[in-house]
Design brief:
The chain has helices at residues 11-22, 55-60, 62-78, 83-96, 102-111, 137-148, 167-174, 186-198, 215-227, 242-255, 272-281, 303-324; strands at residues 2-8, 27-33, 40-46, 126-130, 156-160, 182-183, 203-206, 230-237, 259-263, 284-289, 298-300. The protein is an alpha/beta fold. A hairpin with an 8-residue loop joins β10 and β11 (298-300). The two termini are 38 Å apart.
């Protein structure tokens, strides 16, 4: 079975997308309307074709699928994922990943719970990185500029240091430059982006921190996003409290963010809460921060990579306990 989420302005259009991609045999699992923008989300599934697999053999393999579901549940709980997410991911992985190894099964299950939308190497708009204080925006801006730059199309990392808090100097150090372009006011940032747009250039902007608990801060962010021809992308650290992460993701989603970059995944062992928080927020995961290095420390997000993160250490620890027994 293949499961996927479709989004469209109306339910009729979303259902049309379902039929177009999954065909007339697709089964509608759920429908919902996002409060923040009125977009309709439809989750649908269709049976996968298993070549050369007779029905009796498929039925005989069912105990194996239950074993897979049990292994996934154990790993996700070890990673601190909440019970609701554990049940949804393990059940979906057991059904959709029938016959696959645990990583393949979990990957299949995650595709129905998360949306993965990595950044294009040639972004249509400049990128504004936003997030709460201490989330890793400056390092991420340096990483993104390196990752997205091509020989014939370099992308510059610039600082929106509205508070004169030293962002410009930190960004310059990370990009190994004496100095970097900066904007000290919202108006200055508007002009800078407009100038680069006129030249057909794209930039990665290390935005100022915004406190999601401060309504004034979030209002200023919403106004800033509406004034500039950019895509605002949320940066969140995976070492935070999962419930706080979910609340923060929702707050930035209401302000205009549609994608998130998860940082510090290499610095935490139990990642289930962070992944579940993003699933509940309905933001798409763009990239994964997997190391401190500016070169190679950021990778495109895929269901396979996230499944690997949620299985590796849990399985190793399970084998260790088996040996001790």
């Amino acid at each position: 079975m293949k499961m996927k989420m479709f989004t469209a302005p109306t339910e009729k259009e979303a259902l049309a997308l379902v039929r177009s991609e999954l065909g007339p045999d697709a089964v509608i699992l759920s429908t919902a309307t996002r409060e923040e923008d009125g977009i309709v989300e439809v989750r649908a599934a269709v049976e996968r074709a298993f070549n050369n697999l007779a029905t009796p053999k498929f039925a005989e393999a069912k105990p194996k699928f239950d074993e897979t579901r049990s292994r996934l549940s154990t790993s996700l709980r070890w990673h601190g994922a909440p019970d609701g997410f554990v049940q949804l991911a393990a059940d979906a992985g057991g059904r959709l990943g029938a016959g696959l190894d645990p990583q393949g099964a979990l990957s299949a299950g995650l595709e129905g719970l998360l949306t993965f939308n990595p950044l294009n190497s040639r972004p249509e708009k400049s990128i504004l990185l936003v997030g709460p204080p201490g989330c890793g925006k400056t390092t991420t801006a340096a990483k993104l500029a390196f990752e997205l730059s091509e020989t014939d199309s370099p992308i510059e990392a610039v600082a929106a240091d509205f508070d004169a808090s030293g962002q410009t100097a930190r960004l310059a150090a990370l990009t190994l430059k004496v100095s970097v372009t900066n904007a000290l006011t919202p108006d200055g940032l508007v002009r800078l982006v407009a100038e680069r747009d006129d030249k057909g250039q794209r930039i990665v902007i290390d935005g100022p921190p915004f406190n999601p608990l401060d309504s004034g801060d979030m209002s200023r962010l919403t106004a800033l996003i509406s004034r500039i021809n950019i895509e605002a992308i949320l940066v969140l650290a995976a070492d935070g409290n999962p419930m706080e992460m979910e609340d923060n993701a929702r707050a930035f989603g209401l302000a205009g963010c549609r994608r998130v970059i998860l940082t510090r995944l290499d610095a935490v062992r139990r990642r289930g809460g962070a992944i579940a928080a993003i699933s509940s927020s309905r933001l798409s995961i763009a990239q994964l921060g997997m190391g401190p290095s500016v070169r190679g420390g950021l990778v495109p997000a895929t269901s396979e990579r996230v499944a690997s993160l949620l299985l590796a250490e849990a399985q190793a620890e399970a084998e260790l306990f088996k040996g001790a027994a």
